[in-house]
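Q:
Got a chain?
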Amino acid sequence: MEIYSSPDFVQLALAAELSNDPGTFFAYNNKAVNLLAGIVQKASGKRMDLYIRDEIFTPLGITDYAWMLDKAGNPHGMAGLHILPADFAKLGQLVLNRGKWDDRQIIAENWFDLSLRPGQEFEPTCGLLWWLISDHITYIIDDDQITKLTAKGVSPDFVGKLRLLKGSYESRSALQTAAEKVFGDRWQEEIMSALGPMSWSLTRKQVGKNVIGYYASGYLGQYLIIVPAQHVIVVRMINGSDGYSEKTDGFTNIQELAVKLVK
């Protein structure tokens, strides 16, 4: 709500107070991602959406799209791109081809070595705005994790429920099923309400050594998933509606299903 009511998303990001010292903590942050519009314009001399239009969309033949702007004329960095599924898949193919399209190198190949590996040491499943799919991931809620959350000031009621979730979960689906049993149908809202303001994770993760895919995800359950070894690209898009339900429409396990599809 703070972002959308702001007249200038870039200035809002620049004016934001730091919740942690740089280089000490990771959390995905929409306000910070919006700063990319200012960075790209400074670096290229061109507004970010126009730069992407000229350098990426036009070579790919993507013409039917729209990009939301704030009141100051900045394109949204965190969201706001309206694009057709077939064109969304072209972006996936461009990544799969490591920046090459019709024998033209649109994006430097070595950029993908940087962007498709962990971008920091705190969250092994996040590259540079790509989420990484490991060959194996275990979600763990143990005494150490509960102690950390308690020290952060999580409510005793939430901690009590969290103790019922103690254990290791070999898939996101298994964790979500267990969380629903403890917190009820609105489990996501309760967890976000308790942990979201601190950008703290419900679990700690043990991640396998091999990255077998990567994906981008967006509001309501928009997904672009790439499994390079099998040359598979998965696109999933959905419109919002009054009847939208995160439980039935969010498709939060689509990454696991995409990997199973190609095994």
In short: The chain has eleven helices and eleven strands. Residues 217 and 223 are 5 Å apart (CA to CA). The first strand starts at residue 65 and ends at 67. The mean pLDDT is 92.
